[in-house]
Design goal:
Elements: E1 11-13, E2 75-77, H1 78-82, H2 98-102, H3 118-128, E3 136-137, H4 141-145, H5 150-163, E4 170-171, H6 173-183, H7 188-199, H8 209-222, H9 226-230, H10 232-243, H11 253-262, H12 266-275, H13 284-325, H14 329-333, H15 335-353, H16 360-369, H17 381-413, H18 416-419, H19 423-426, H20 433-437, H21 440-458, H22 461-464, H23 473-476, H24 481-488, H25 491-503, H26 516-540, E5 542-543, E6 545-551, E7 556-562, E8 574-579, E9 588-591, E10 600-606, H27 610-621, E11 626-632, E12 644-650, H28 655-672, H29 691-697, E13 702-709, H30 719-728, E14 734-740, H31 749-765, E15 777-779, H32 784-794, E16 799-806, H33 811-821, E17 827-834
Biased composition (Basic and acidic residues): 20-31
Region (Disordered): 1-58
Protein name: FAD-binding FR-type domain-containing protein
Length: 835
């Protein structure tokens, strides 16, 4: 059969098995032709990796398998492989195209193992066999070659040993080098044979169902997939049904090869994307200009706020410095008093404005009800709070050092005539340094410094999150979020002492010149008013617990609670939760995972600290009373400002993105007239079908959601949402991409069988073996460059909103890529939430 106009096309035919309802002898063929253009480095539209070549609807009564191999021109019949016996050796041909090289998977040693080559292996061999006389035991094989999964390494050892006719459990260095060469053989067939032999325990040339079950369990264990391990027998049956249609009781290597290769199609788009780089000018001056230009474009909101703040501080410092430069005190204390007073003036400013970024209600009101968000970076409120704290630390250092190390010694050492103008401020000339230390100014200042030092130190991220390893045990008990929470409330004492300190300030007598209280009055009143409003609102807005769910994987508690009538929020926002049975004082923030159109509120709480542990244990005993405070603004609530959005969540950081996805689907249902009610707590519910709401929300035309998680069981958190999106999103508005980082990437021998199972099960049952949802999971970590490239190519001349929530580990990479790709036609606007 000829196929014109296609290069490197693959055509496979397979007879329907005798398990079909057809009479024996009836032949049915299904053809798939794949075009691979390997001469172009541009990104070409390719089939969605979630769409398996084994199409749905192929029931056991009509089991027609569609298998493909990319980059080959061989036409083969899978059914013919099933008719072979282990004694029959078919002729296999494969053309070495670049596409096949891209699919040269089944690697036993990868970057995930810290691949370092034979010299490192040889060094490890010498270390491990130092006491055994140069003999490497089977149990140490994995450690020596860099494979972390011990069971998989031992199975690999057994397969290699059998082929080399090696008996026993030890090998020499020469034998290890032979093993190493075979493991890293450049040709795919050799590695396929090793993989097949790992399952073929008796080396009879065929795999029985028990052997398939054992290799599935081994692969699942290597990838930490408990759910697949528990269903190894079921999945072995599925593979035998596909590859052994004539019930011979075994499958051949050729049939396994076809199925393994068809699961590697996802690697092609990644390879092509990686070949496309953002062009860079060779002119150094132009590169610097472009770098500065795009930095300013990306950070102009932050820059003007910082510039204004620094300018005000510089102005205050300079003004106060010059005032005291022309006063009699300068003749006694010199420039030290000018520096102390200048620093003191900046401290008044910063002690006032440090409260503004944590006035949550005010910020939420401004970003939601006004257009100030266009010019004010509300997303950076906590970062600004931290920067101001650093400025306060510097100001305290300058102010206290100038007084203690310079002003006081000069006052003591001054002669009588020089000191005389200072008598109106200090009285009789002090003869001892201790006299200054007993003053109200020094005592209040010292206590403030001590309290702020405690508060600032325990607020650092590594102490607040308990990111420590070698701290003494006594210190471990006094750090963490609770320590941060309680010590931050020392601000009540600090501000009281600040006003007292300002009243007894040196060198000022008239009350209206003592301006400390003037600086802090408005911010303190605003902040205390906010706290009062929160307290009153929480008393009124106690909520009823409707449903709870506890997910063992990830230790996550899902709460569904009643929604107060006046609680209006936007997707991406968060609220505070208090449980008096756990703590009567502590409030903790959680992203809202329900959508604005839902008649309930839901949050997902991960067990990551003392408070969350106590909360979960309380729910095992009884349903405690909960009160809420919110909602509060967050960066991801601005997703509606973009036609295209890229939503990224790591672990529990997916929570605000889930609310956004629900909101988009709700509006899709409204626009398509689908008013069907949601089925369970995580499904979406259509919102109010008001014209105002339609015009407000539905600017977004395309959403890409990438969720990366370490554990297979975490998919249970939002399983129903994923299935709902797959069912309701008929126009492909939302693309869902789940990544399980515990699974080795495509191309690794340890995940090869999982990839094959994934394709088979999705085709037959419509579900993913990893996530249990209709969404096909990816293995390993997301390749962010490829993702940005794909979106940039699909959406030229478009502003793409990038919203991230999760740990700070990938923030720099995502932000840098957004800046880099924005230098072309697509503009990526990056927003983040860290926890």
């Amino acid at each position: 059969m000829q196929t014109s106009g296609l290069k490197n096309a693959t055509i496979y035919r397979r007879q329907s098995s005798k398990r079909t309802g057809y009479e024996e002898g009836h032949k049915e063929h299904t053809e798939i032709t794949v075009n691979t253009n390997e001469e172009s480095n541009s990104l070409k539209p390719c089939e969605d990796p979630e769409k398996s070549l084994l199409r749905q609807g192929h029931s056991m009564k009509n089991s027609v398998s569609v298998l493909k191999r990319i980059g080959s021109t061989v036409t083969t019949t899978v059914a013919s492989f099933a008719s072979l016996t282990p004694e029959t050796k078919p002729t296999r041909r494969r053309l070495k195209s670049s596409t096949e090289l891209a699919l040269n998977g089944l690697k036993f040693i990868t970057k995930a193992d810290g691949f370092a080559g034979w010299p490192r292996v040889e060094k490890d061999f010498d270390r491990l066999t130092e006491k055994t006389g140069g003999s490497l035991d089977r149990s140490d094989f994995g450690d020596c070659i860099g494979i972390k999964s011990k069971e998989f390494a031992e199975a690999l050892f057994d397969a290699l040993a059998k082929r080399q006719n090696i008996t026993g459990h030890v090998i020499s260095k020469d034998q290890l080098q032979i093993f190493w060469d075979k493991i890293n053989a450049p040709d795919f067939d050799s590695r396929l044979r090793i993989f097949f032999d790992m399952a073929d325990k008796d080396l009879d040339g065929g795999l029985s169902e028990d052997e398939v079950k054992e290799i599935i369990a081994l692969s699942a264990s290597a990838n930490k997939l408990k759910n697949i391990s528990g269903k190894a027998g079921e999945y072995a049956t599925l593979i035998m049904e596909e590859l052994d249609p004539y019930d011979r009781g075994y499958i051949m290597i050729e049939a396994l090869e076809v199925l393994l290769l068809q699961g590697n199609t996802k690697a092609v788009s990644d390879l092509v994307s990686q070949q496309v780089e953002v062009s860079q000018s060779r002119n150094l001056g132009k590169r610097l200009y472009n770098g500065v230009k795009y930095f300013v474009l990306d950070n102009w909101k932050r820059l003007w706020v910082m510039a204004l703040w620094i300018a005000v501080m510089a102005g205050l410092f300079t003004w106060k410095f010059m005032v005291y430069r022309n006063r009699p005190a300068y003749q006694v204390m010199g420039a030290c008093v000018c520096i102390a007073k200048g620093a003191g003036e900046t401290l008044k400013l910063n002690m006032a404005i440090i409260l503004l970024p944590v006035c949550r209600n005010t910020i939420t009101l401004l970003r939601t009800k006004t257009k100030l968000g266009v010019v004010v970076p509300f997303d950076d409120n906590l970062n600004f709070h931290k920067v101001i704290a650093i400025a306060i630390s510097i100001g305290v250092g300058l102010h206290s050092t100038s007084h203690l190390a310079c002003d006081f010694p000069r006052l003591i050492a001054a002669d009588e005539e020089t000191y005389k103008p200072m008598e109106q401020y200090f009285g009789a000339q002090p003869k001892s340094y201790v006299q200054f230390l007993k003053s109200v100014e020094v005592i209040t200042g010292t206590v403030m410094v001590i309290l702020m030092t405690i508060s600032f130190t325990l607020a650092t991220s590594w102490l607040r999150r308990k990111d420590y390893k070698n701290l003494p045990q006594p210190l471990k008990t006094i750090i963490g979020f609770n320590a941060f929470w309680y010590t931050h409330h020392l601000f009540v004492i600090v501000y009281t002492l600040l006003v007292v300190h300002g009243y007894y300030v040196y060198l000022i007598k008239t009350w209206y010149r003592k301006t400390t209280w003037m600086y802090v009055m408005v911010p303190v009143v605003l902040y205390l008013s906010e706290r009062l409003v929160r307290s009153l609102r929480s008393r009124i807005e106690s909520v009823e617990i409707k449903k709870i769910a506890v997910y063992k994987e990830g230790n996550v508690l899902c709460l569904q609670i009643s929604r107060p009538n006046n609680f209006r929020y936007k997707s991406g926002q968060y609220m505070y939760l208090k449980c008096s049975d756990v703590s009567s004082l502590e409030w903790h923030p959680f992203s809202i995972t329900s959508a604005p159109g839902d008649d309930y509120l839901s949050v997902h709480i991960r067990d990551q600290g003392d408070w969350t542990k106590k909360l979960q244990s309380t729910f095992y005993k009884f349903f405690p009373k909960l009160v809420i405070d919110g909602p509060y603004g967050a960066p991801s609530q601005d997703y509606k400002n973009f036609d295209v959005v890229l939503l990224v969540g790591l672990g529990i950081g997916a929570t605000p993105m889930i609310s956004i996805i629900k909101d988009i689907i709700n509006n899709l249902k409204v626009n398509t007239g689908d008013e069907e009610e949601g089925r369970c707590s995580n499904t979406v519910t259509p919102p109010s079908n008001s014209p105002a709401r339609k015009s407000e929300l539905f600017r977004t035309k395309k959403a890409y959601f990438y969720w990366s998680t370490k554990e297979q069981g975490t998919y249970e958190w939002f399983k129903s949402v994923m299935d709902e999106v797959s069912e309701a999103d008929v126009n492909n508005v939302i693309e869902l991409h789940n990544y399980c980082t515990s699974i080795f990437e495509e191309g690794d021998a340890r995940s090869a069988l999982i990839t094959m199972l994934q394709s088979l099960n999705h085709a037959k049952n419509g579900t993913d073996v990893v996530s249990g949802t209709r969404v096909m999971s990816h293995f390993g970590r997301p390749k962010w460059r490829s993702i940005y490239e794909r979106i940039a190519v699909k959406h030229p001349n478009t502003r793409v909103g990038v919203f991230y929530c999760g740990p700070a580990t990938v923030v720099k990479e995502l932000h840098n890529l957004a800046t880099e790709f924005s230098q072309r036609t697509t503009k990526f606007c990056f927003h983040k939430e860290n926890f």
